[in-house]
Amino acid sequence: MNTPPANLADRWSDALAALQPASGPAWLQALRQSAAGHFRSSGLPHRKVEAWKYTPLRVLDDLALATDAAQGEAGRAIAMPAPLCDRAAIVDILDGVPAWSAAAIPDGVTLMSLAEGIGHFEERLRPMFEAIELDGPSRAFAALNTALAQQGLLVHVAAGREAGRLLLRWVSLPGTAAVMKQFRLFVLLDHGARLDLVEQYQSMAAVTGGLNVLCQAELGDGAVFGHVRVQAESDQEVLLTSTMLEQAADSSYVYRGFDLGASLARHEITVRLAGPGATADIAGAFVLDGKRHLDNHVSVEHLAAGCRSEQFFRGVLGGRSRGVFNGRALIQPGADGSIVRQSNANLLLSPLAEMDTKPELEIYADEVEASHGATVGQLDEAAIFYLRSRGLDEAAARRMLTTAFCHAVTDRVSGRGLAERIAELLDAAMPTDTDV
């Protein structure tokens, strides 16, 4: 049965009143109250909600809500994963609480906590806060994130500045309560600004908990936003992310996502190409085994002429795992000359693995170039035979083909060192047993 436990939404609704922060300007406090009301009236998504029909929420039943789970951790020795990339400014986010060294931040780049960011950029952040849809069960986690908005990070890059690479290293701490934490991330890139953001989700110990991250980004004219997300959490972790971007003329968003762990991971990416010539290049790869569940939902809206978008996803599924891909591209009237590409291919290594894929195109403009395709299948036996004829045993041949399948995405990562490190993690995550 694919419905959340009957009492989960009620438990979380009851907890909201006690947990809601009282800090911040009056408009934010009112918005938190409104979001809590939307959650109480709509509840959690269930099998009749189209966007969530394949994603059960039973794994959340033992999680409580939290706003600041890392209290009392100061001074504690914490094992941190090795950084995924060199020459990067690092922000460590321990149980949802960010910390960084101001000395490592380049000129023209501003990092602030959520509270500080609202104080300095209120005129820009308030409409972004208020633009989030909160009504209905499909928006339950956006409503929760807003109702409990307290921990977060603002990244601002001034006009024409090259920010370099910023690494967000997310770690859940062992020994803490099993909670669903909330985090808000704002990325503001002014005219011509450039930022490479890498998110690394990789706790060093098996931790039971969840993280609900809502990221909003504004890209000014000609801004370039490179975004890499690598998730390699334990099988007891839940990760829910929602990324929303508004892009001005000639701006560029390049996303590379890799899911190699977690009991449940779901990513929503919503992009509005609002200015002429804006581009969005969105690619991801995932490796599932055991009973892991991964859900990618991508929506790109073309609102102006001459925009271009691509969605390119690859998945390998073993055991009893399940994957979901829903990719949508909407070409609105007036977005003439748009170019759209969609591709989702998946390999099933087990008879009990499942993949649900649904690419969608809606076109209401002229002179549009568009293509989409989706495949779910098994390894090519002819290719396996060829590799075995060259001296590989069957297991090695299958592993070589499955890793090469996903390297079509790692090869698209900018930066050789980062691409090689991600490829190593991906190869290590490959299922070793193609049976159940």
Overall description:
With 436 residues, this protein is of the alpha/beta class. It has a domain at 8-275. Helix content is 22%, strand content 39%. It contains 8 helices and 20 strands. It has helices at 8-19, 26-42, 114-120, 122-131, 140-147, 381-389, 394-410, 416-429; strands spanning 64-65, 89-94, 97-100, 109-113, 152-157, 162-171, 179-189, 194-201, 209-219, 224-231, 237-247, 252-259, 264-273, 279-288, 293-302, 308-317, 322-331, 339-348, 354-363, 369-377. Strands 1, 4, 5, 7, 9, 11, 13, 15, 17 and 19 form a 10-stranded mixed sheet that branches. The chain has a 10-stranded mixed sheet with strand order 3-2-6-8-10-12-14-16-18-20, with helices on one face. Strand 2 (89-94) and strand 3 form a beta hairpin. Helix 3 crosses helix 4. It is globular and about 55 Å long. The protein starts with 7 loop residues before the first helix and ends in a 7-residue tail after the last helix.
